[in-house]
């Protein structure tokens, strides 16, 4: 596994987690 592919996977995972946390915080604020 190349470094670029590994970095891309890490960034993709981080964006997915950040999107989930942002979505959860928006729901929490609305309620």
Radius of gyration: 14 Å
Helical percentage = over 70%
Mean pLDDT, as a whole number?
93
How many strand units? Answer: 0
* Tally of domains: 1
Order of secondary-structure elements: H
Number of discrete helical segments = 1
Largest sheet: none
Spatial shape? rod-shaped
End-to-end Cα distance, whole Å, is 44 Å
Query: Per DSSP, what share of the residues sits in E-state strands of 2 or more residues?
Result: under 5%
Can you tell me about this structure?
The protein has 31 residues and is mostly helical. The chain has one domain. The N and C termini lie far apart (44 Å). The model has no long low-confidence stretch (mean pLDDT 93).
List keywords for this structure.
31 residues
Q: What's the layout of helices and strands?
A:
Layout lengths: L2 H28 L1
At a glance:
The protein is built from 1 helix and no strands. The protein is mainly alpha-helical.
